[in-house]
Design a protein that fits this description.
Layout: E1 9-16, H1 23-32, E2 45-54, E3 57-66, E4 80-82, E5 85-88, E6 92-93, E7 116-119, E8 122-124, E9 141-147, H2 151-155, H3 157-167, E10 173-179, H4 191-200, E11 204-207, H5 216-234, E12 236-237
Parallel strand pairs: 1-3, 1-9, 9-10, 10-11
Antiparallel strand pairs: 2-3, 4-8, 5-7, 6-12
């Protein structure tokens, strides 16, 4: 395989939460080990990738970030222009367990996005007042981010969680992330309160700082490990006929063990 396809699994993970909570800096810290003090709100959608080892498997994480605001209205479907093709090359077939990619031009029915490489030029109309449904399509994990120094961003977590569960796959792995833990002197959201909310809603929980990198690696490592173990426990060895009909099986996601809260002292 070429360098771009030398992995065992590809998992799409989305970042959601209010504008200004640090989603873009979490993305850049994890994928490029960078932090931008002058980071502005994301316009449209961006994603970056990084590969890491989980239980001896090479996992390629595709992390998506969007600046589209929360809306109480139904999300709109954007316009796509696909000019190429999709190639699927899975070692494992597990279409019964996670969302199935069916709508992309050239996709083979029965394959999940995480086993397909999209060789395409995709133009997305992101001039929408609502988050497009496509943002959640194929996602197997989500980081629901709030700012520990701004209580309003934590209050809105409930609405973000509802939107996620309304439009994402029911088995998506979700982690609640209290970002900017370096601003402990400005803390507006008690750790115990957020942890209790996560437990009540079946989420894992961690506090991070994109500025000093505290727990950023751990957050992504934890959610990707959770996803991989769910997938690997349900996946089957590829047979002569890699496309199998659905069996109706379901998977249950349990929240991870809480991670340690960061003790940094700076902003973001």
């Amino acid at each position: 395989m070429s360098e771009g396809t030398n992995f065992d699994y590809l998992f799409k993970v989305v970042l959601i939460g209010d504008s200004g909570v640090g989603k873009s800096n979490l993305l850049s810290r994890f994928t490029r080990n960078e932090f931008n003090l002058e980071s502005k709100s994301t316009i449209g959608v961006e994603f970056a990738t990084r590969s890491l080892n989980v239980d001896g498997k090479n996992i390629k994480a595709q992390i998506w970030d969007t600046g589209m605001p929360f809306s109480s209205h139904p999300p709109l479907v954007p316009q796509f222009s696909v000019t190429s093709d999709v190639g699927c090359f899975a070692k494992y077939e597990y279409s019964n367990d996670l969302p199935i990619l069916r709508s992309w031009s050239g996709a083979i029915p029965g394959y999940h996005l995480s086993v397909c490489q999209i060789y395409a030029s995709v133009i997305v109309d992101v001039s929408l007042s609502h988050r497009p449904i496509s943002y959640y399509r194929g996602a197997v994990g989500a980081l629901l981010v709030y700012d520990i120094s701004k209580h309003a961003t934590y209050v809105n977590v409930t609405r973000w969680l509802k939107e996620l569960r309304d439009h994402a796959d029911s088995n998506i792995v979700i982690m609640l992330v209290g970002n900017k833990s370096d601003l402990k002197h400005l803390r507006a959201v008690p750790t115990d309160e957020a942890k209790a909310f996560a437990t009540e809603n079946g989420l894992s929980f961690i506090e991070t700082s994109a500025l000093d990198a505290s727990n950023v690696e751990g957050a992504f490592q934890t959610i990707l490990t959770d996803i991989y173990r769910i997938v690997s426990s349900k996946s089957l060895e590829q047979s002569a006929d890699p496309i199998k009909p659905p069996t109706g099986d379901s998977i249950t996601v349990q929240p991870s063990v809480d991670a340690t809260t960061n003790q940094g002292s700076k902003c973001c």
